[in-house]
């Protein structure tokens, strides 16, 4: 009797252990199906992957979100352009390392572009502690979700370009709060060779807001958002022959920061309050009317405390005085002859000019942040990370 009881108890313990392992797994194995209602959770229990419906929509999407936070914070969506219309979909990883979202009749509506040239059963898809979904074979990453960001930028992600493959990593807004398909807005880093890094918010490829340039510590032109050296994350601008990208990183599991491009084109930076697991707004860009790109034109300046908001810099006058349109900017009040009495004026608390036409000399490539953009603007504060 005691033997039978002990045997039964051991079976119950084994089933409980098996259930615990299965429900807390952070991986998907070859031909392991994840159905709607099932999830995998990162080892640190910070991120979760599964099917969800955004807002008031009944469509189903495969996504990754911060676990146990309010409001629900989705950071990545797989099938954002092709939703499931019911809860009968599933995720599967085949023996060539391809992760797919399939319908109940087996139709593939989304798949990763990962591929190994031979059949194997050792590939896995794993949800990492930083929220990155990776597909691995023999300890090598053959695909990762961080290479295909959506509307949200988090620690460990890259905003920039792989100069070898040409793949660019940038944010794209959702169509609406109920529809994660690609919206009208993007956030991208200027990644042209020998150009100073700055960020653009664009509406259908038209620049609406410029953030930067990057000065070695932070992006210039954000008067209400100053980098605090005591913040629990590291900001890096990385430039070398293979990549050019911006990222911030934090190894603290108790700290989370996210930047989301919303459907109206605003970037909302939020910090997680670890005490109540709620997201708190930290900053929003663009800040005000003067953040509209090229609003006052060349040699013009903008201030929301002035009326009108646009005015010409000292020594310049309006290009078209009979027009209320400032986009053509200002011109010199008299010709510049560089003679006696000529000099420079100091302007403080102003956003640096657009540097997309400023060239970084090739010989300074190894000291990227130690040079000045022009004779009147010093863009560098200290050496950036290479």
Automatic annotation (TrEMBL):
Q: Where is the Bulb-type lectin domain?
A: 25-148
SMART domains recorded: B_lectin (SM00108)
Q: Which SUPFAM superfamilies match?
A: alpha-D-mannose-specific plant lectins
**What CDD domains does UniProt report for this protein, alphabetically?**
B_lectin, EGF_CA
**Residue stretches making up the EGF-like domain:** 286-322
- As given in the record, the signal peptide range reads 1-25
Role summary:
Involved in sporophytic self-incompatibility system (the inability of flowering plants to achieve self-fertilization).
Listed name of the protein: Uncharacterized protein
């Amino acid at each position: 009797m005691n033997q039978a009881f002990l045997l039964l108890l051991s079976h119950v313990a084994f089933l409980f252990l098996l259930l615990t392992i299965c429900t807390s797994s952070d991986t998907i194995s070859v031909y392991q199906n994840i159905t709607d209602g099932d999830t995998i959770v990162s080892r640190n229990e910070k991120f979760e992957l599964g099917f969800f419906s955004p807002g008031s929509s009944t469509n189903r999407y495969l996504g990754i979100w911060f676990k146990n936070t309010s409001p629900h914070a989705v950071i990545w969506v797989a099938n954002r352009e092709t939703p499931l219309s019911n809860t009968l979909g599933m995720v599967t990883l085949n023996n060539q390392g391809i992760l797919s979202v399939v319908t109940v009749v087996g139709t593939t509506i989304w798949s990763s572009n990962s591929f190994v040239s031979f059949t194997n059963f050792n590939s896995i898809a794993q949800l990492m502690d930083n929220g990155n979904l990776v597909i691995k074979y023999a300890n090598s990453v053959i695909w990762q979700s961080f290479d295909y960001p959506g509307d949200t930028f988090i620690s460990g992600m890259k905003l920039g370009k792989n100069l070898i493959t040409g793949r660019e990593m940038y944010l794209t807004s959702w169509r609406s709060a109920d529809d994660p398909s690609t919206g009208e807005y993007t956030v991208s880093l200027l990644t042209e060779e020998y150009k100073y890094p700055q960020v653009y918010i664009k509406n259908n490829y038209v620049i609406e807001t410029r953030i930067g340039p990057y000065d070695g510590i932070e992006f210039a032109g954000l008067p209400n958002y100053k980098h605090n050296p005591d913040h629990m994350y590291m900001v890096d601008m990385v430039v070398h022959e293979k990549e050019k990208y911006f990222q911030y990183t934090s190894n603290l599991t108790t700290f989370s920061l996210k930047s989301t491009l919303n459907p109206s084109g605003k970037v909302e930076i939020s910090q997680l309050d670890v005490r109540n697991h709620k997201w708190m707004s930290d900053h929003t860009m663009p800040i005000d009317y003067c953040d509209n790109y090229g609003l006052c034109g060349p040699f013009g300046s903008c201030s929301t405390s002035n009326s009108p908001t646009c005015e010409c810099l000292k020594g310049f006058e309006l290009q078209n005085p009979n027009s209320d349109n400032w986009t053509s900017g200002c011109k010199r009040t008299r010709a510049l002859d560089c003679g006696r009495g000529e000099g420079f004026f100091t302007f403080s608390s102003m956003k640096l000019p657009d540097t997309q036409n400023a060239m970084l000399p090739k010989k300074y490539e190894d000291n990227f942040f130690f040079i000045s953009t022009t004779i009147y603007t010093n863009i560098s504060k200290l050496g950036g990370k290479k």
